[in-house]
Write a structure and sequence with these properties.
The protein is built from 3 helices and 2 strands; from the N terminus they run E-E-H-H-H. The chain is mainly alpha-helical.
Length: about 70
């Protein structure tokens, strides 16, 4: 289950509002929420090399920097 503020096809307005109220720009807040959703899906990938590759592709598509361990 995806509990990071995402619903089917649409970002949770409350989560977006929370991030925006903390000074995070709209586009960056959107990308963070989409990345969190994708990361939930990727948590099922058991091959570390594949998980890292997919994480990098997703981050690139969302235009975010990836500074996390997978």
């Amino acid at each position: 289950a995806c509990s990071h503020g995402c619903t089917i096809g649409q970002l949770d307005d409350e989560a977006l509002f929370y991030l925006r109220s903390r000074g995070i720009p709209f586009k960056e807040a959107q990308a963070m929420l989409m990345y969190a959703f994708a990361n939930d899906v990727l948590s099922n990938v058991k091959i570390p090399e594949l998980k890292e590759k997919l994480n990098r592709i997703i981050a690139e598509k969302l235009g975010v920097e990836l500074n996390i361990e997978v």
